[in-house]
Amino acid sequence: MLAEEGTTSSPVRAGLASRCWSVPWSTSSGAEETSSKASSSTTNRTFRSIPVIKIPFASISYREISLSTALNDELDRIAYSYGHSLAGQSLSVKFGELIKVLHTASGQKVVVLIDEYDKPLIDYLDKDSLPCARQNRSVLKSFYSVLKNADPNLKLVFITILNCFIY
After folding, report:
1. What is the pTM of this model?
2. β-bridge partners, 20
């Protein structure tokens, strides 16, 4: 029935995305500490938190303000949550800076989670809004281009799609 209407969504994708968003992103440092008072079977592991950049397009306000402004605000919010501020002026410079700062500060490679990456395009596919969709495409192209050069600082990039179209 969904195929007849021209769109389909994947329950598998929805399951993967919700799991990915709820994973506690931490890793064992591999260092095991055994207290001299504790028995040899009691082991304490130390955990280091992995920095995560989560960008849920369904939750950012790109419809009220421009996509570029909304993403800039989101990057500033993420940086602030880790105790940093960003000096970059352009969106792509700021995104690259955030990835590098989080990697350097934590000593851990960064995880990037982007949910519904195409939502700023899909929301503007009606005939009257196509110029806005084209503008958003340009912004997203610049934004996502950062990921390729940031590879040495990245542990994982997980991107989910909003819709698939069947013709």
Report:
1. 0.72
2. none
